[in-house]
## 1
Amino acid sequence: MAVAAAAAKLRGSGRGLGQAGVLLLRRLGARGLARYHPRRQEQQHFPSLDDKPQFPGASAEFVDKLEFIQPNVISGIPVYRVMDRQGQIINPSEDPHLPQETVLKFYKSMTLLNTMDRILYESQRQGRISFYMTNYGEEGTHVGSAAALDSTDLVFGQYREAGVLMYRDYPLELFMAQCYGNASDLGKGRQMPVHYGCKERHFVTISSPLATQIPQAVGAAYAAKRANANRVVICYFGEGAASEGDAHAGFNFAATLECPVIFFCRNNGYAISTPTSEQYRGDGIAARGPGYGIMSIRVDGNDVFAVYNATKEARRRAVAENQPFLIEAMTYRIGHHSTSDDSSAYRSVDEVNYWDKQDHPISRLRHYLQGRGWWDDEQEKAWRKQSRKKVGTPLCWNPGPGAGVGGMFWGGAWVKNSGGMERLGLGDIELGDLGTAPGMSLSVACGVRLPGHMRFCCVLGMIPALHALLSEERHWGVAVRG
Amino acid sequence: MGPPLRLNQCRSRLGAPPSLPAVCGRVARNPGLQVGMAAFAATAGRLLGLRAAGTEGRLLRLRGAGLQRALLQPASATGDAAQRRQVAHFTFQPDPEPQEYGQTQKMNLFQAITSALDNSLAKDPTAVIFGEDVAFGGVFRCTVGLRDKYGKDRVFNTPLCEQGIVGFGIGIAVTGATAIAEIQFADYIFPAFDQIVNEAAKYRYRSGDLFNCGSLTIRAPWGCVGHGALYHSQSPEAFFAHCPGIKVVVPRSPFQAKGLLLSCIEDKNPCIFFEPKILYRAAVEQVPVEPYHIPLSQAEVIQEGSDVTLVAWGTQVHVMREVASMAQEKLGVSCEVIDLKTILPWDMDTVCKSVIKTGRLLISHEAPLTGGFASEISSTVQEECFLNLEAPISRVCGYDTPFPHIFEPFYIPDKWKCYDALRKMINY
């Protein structure tokens, strides 16, 4: 090692073996000669005097002091905000100066979502729907970010982003139809409640597995970039889902493939019962971004203007520069994880009350509105009444006919059993109504016997009339209607 | 009862025969004469100070090789040089040159794949190909030249992350663009299992057809290759057969591969296309230069027969062809050989029709026996054709162990194991 260093010094000019080099060789003898094989010399033969590392994998400087990098979690990435907790703008130059109409739309979207959440949560408790997840406390993250996007920007969500759809004017009837799984559900009654999707509003249907949407959003962004669509893709996920491998995959792909995607992390403090202290040890999710080469920011998720500003700028740059952005919106999950959860088992009621009373996105915006003279208590009272009426429509209490049983089977391109249905030339078959059961209405397809050995198995807990029909026919099929 | 172990097969694969009773359970249960002889030979070899031969089986060149051969020459071994040097367990049989698709060119399997991908990228401006190492041409040369021809935004490397590759591919497909993802070996597809099964397969269904990822195709090299061992030899089609919503396809030849791959790419469902890697170079055929499609979910009767139905897919089809000719030659039994081609959804009609005719069914695949796709075929056929069956349905498959390295020739369902099972069925 010392010999090599000495040799390097002697050869300072880097022009190959000079006189000094020859002298050194003589001293070292044949064995030493091996070290100075022409190939080896080539490795050290660079024009720069600076002796910089040449590794393909990293382009930093050398350092000769052994020191580990200390992860900084005490004073980590700061939280960007525009309003204080009382709704006052802190730095006027950060005020987005949105028109009254827009800010009122923010407010009404958030409060309507809140009202819908209350009523649908109750519906689950009453046995009308099977399951529900509320968005309490996170309305600001939804509305602030949705407002900053173009209406055609593609949204990949996790499950707690209903406010994005609300902001995009998704009808209340369709929210509820999906929860009830009734005949109006565009999802054909196939998924649990809150798994919304809307093609028109560019909101990709929610799926239960967490973080799977992250690499998908990246792929969609890549395709949008290739198509010169001037579109961004936004991908929402929670701080818990960010622990999934898919999150790592998505971040890395977005950076290496230069995709115009916004990663929006709702850090609400809990993944069901798991607090962030058990979810990660680093400085949250925002600190991971730079590790991937991603522009990152942490914002106050309960400050709708901060969320708006950050998303707006991220969108502008993502499309212009074809690079991903990571926004970590700090917030708090005021409600339970879902109707299957009772969060008093793992957190104090005081903690929840603090966030509900002292730092809520809706109240902060209301203070702002009131401060601007755009809202007052009377309007508040009137709006509350109106929104309760909007949500509590007849549809909510009487969901109407259930989804057709044919909805259980495939429509469109994929037909079971090797194209048997197509080859038999079966088209649509009329769905007949064999009757309804209280609480859950079902339309039932007429049984159709198919020749040969084509058959579809169908096990349903069903009303007696249908059961009788099924047991008559050993081989039967249900028409697939798209 | 295992089939007779052919010594020249052992030699060509392993050099000096190892102590065979120790090899694996099933074989060890039936130490036939040749097994004992082989063990003796190994000891004799060592005693005589013979070096183990290389994998090409050049025992002839060793001193004292004559001694071994004199002791061990089984009646069936002909000592033919070509046979001893044979390293593959099958002989690829090219199909006759197709006439109906225009000009053809001699291509091997990977060239046929390249041709299909070339056609796709030419025809569909949204199509992109991505995966590990595809930019320089791919570890199996399937994407050679495509990046230069179509640009780095259309043929590109991804980071080393299968769940990312498939998830990314789903996302591209959701926007309507065509995504052709490559997984470097089917053995590494498992990190992407969640994305394939929980996402890709269910995308259209769960959204009520609002969204879909039908324009996604996943390609992966598949099956045994002679020395792949646990992680370069797997045939995971059975895992995916259990998943409604995707299609799973395995071609047997270059001509089939190009047509089937083009069909997968055009198909409106996410498809997994497994490419038998041992055929990449070994299979050479005349393949049309222009695009053409071979329909999915249609099995092909490649040889008609009346006594037994043999069903296989991928490389194993060629093994079955040989088994059929052995059966004809040695037993006078006429076999109907079916290439299943599409595993999911599979062509029940063709298989059942054939079994109704022959009354006997033998299914063979390299993947392990338990839970392998032969079990699905067997179960369905016995439901549909119970009264037509003359013998229990036979499955000749890999053992229920991970895919071994040095023991590959004993592991795979070679023609002798299949022939033996066929014989039993005939004599049932």
Note: The beta strands of chain A are 154-156, 203-204, 233-238, 261-267, 270-271, 274-275, 295-300, 325-330, 431-432, 444-445.
## 2
Amino acid sequence: MNWAGLYTVLSGVNRHSTAIGRIWLSVIFIFRIMVLVVAAESVWGDEKSAFTCNTQQPGCNSVCYDHFFPISHIRLWALQLILVTTPALLVAMHVAYQQHQEKKLLVLTGHADAKHMEEVKKHKMRIAGSLWWTYVCSVVFRLLFEAVFMYIFYMLYPGYQMMRLVKCEAYPCPNTVDCFISRPTEKTIFTVFMLVTSSICIVLNMAELVYLVVRACARRSQHNSNPSSGKSSFYGHKHSSEYKQNEINQLLTEQDGSLKDMLRRNSGLQEKGDRCSAC
Amino acid sequence: MDWGTLQAILGGVNKHSTSIGKIWLTVLFIFRIMILVVAAERVWGDEQQDFVCNTLQPGCRNVCYDHFFPISHIRLWALQLIFVSTPALLVAMHVAYTRHEKKRRFRNGEKIDIEELKNAKIHIRGPLWWTYTSSIFFRLIFEAVFMYVFYYMYDGYQMPRLVKCNAWPCPNTVDCFVSRPTEKTTFTIFMLSVSGICMMLNLAELCYLVIKVCMKEPRKTT
């Protein structure tokens, strides 16, 4: 499991994201993960071996390195990128659950042929209903993780700048010892670059959040001014055909309408006459 | 996520590019990215370890290396290649959006063959022409900016054998020796030439697109 594996997992989520979500994913993979792997890792590669202190005291070098770099930038960025990309998996899991429900519904309504099953897998889920909440939660978590890591970076490495020289007094170093960091300018450049891309990602996430909220409000006001769809209640009779019909009703009330569109398109059936009053 | 994945992403864009665009993409992948990965990274691999200064003063070597190489050539080239290849994704996004719109029209009842939709080459016309032209324009700008950054940082593209350093804590002036200067100069000039070729290809593509549009317009008006 490496970055390429994560890319494979997350590209699947891409299909069900908004346009801003797709841009966000591209920025993450190209400007953050790829830059990390291809460039930043080699800059920090020799951070410990080339960390030199002006002393011959054994152990002083290690102790000072550990004191000034409790956790390396590279590891922090790797953790940040993993935590920031993972909420998208919540959405993937919800989509998989909805697809499972749709397949169950197809079986119950007698449309369980290969063509319909394939289409369930391929069609894009509308971000509405419970999926909307999951999607919004995932965006909120992304924002939180980004902010937390930027704060951790600021606490650990005040000002984001890498110094050329640090003065170390930790035991066993004698008095104060000058220690020199390797490639400080290059490290500062990459730290600033990663910080800027992180901020761009935060802005994209906020834009996506605003877009989702505005879209939901617009949809709700459209629905309120056009209340043609009612929803039936679940009766729960155990009589076989009524029970089946009621289960279909319940499944349909949980769907966001994408399956209904699909079935309407493919079979040309009249909704009201054929299935339920939940439509 | 490495160069291979970038190649997979950009390979998809290739289908909707002009012939010059396809040549540009090939030059980018074979003569720049591949050379970077297969050869240049090895040449610069020991750049700091083998940067030797004529002093026993601890820290002097680190400081002098940092002073003369604020950012390594390899990293600059990696960033340049990432920035130069990314505008092509604008085109990919626009094509995906156009396809999505066509699918929506199909769903609303218009008769469009779905197989043809997937495989059809989308012609560079209308708003796509503007997106494509902007992407070429951005590529040119990024190439020019990076070439300027290189020139500004490494005065004249040549790697000297010896640099004289007097940054603290080095005592007075210290001679420092760069590892593999001739090989580095050779690769720097090679990458520079290929970058120049890519800029010319981009300019040619820009001219081609503009001329194509101008040729269409008189035909429309007559």
Note: Residues 229-240, 268-279 of chain A have pLDDT under 50 and may be disordered.
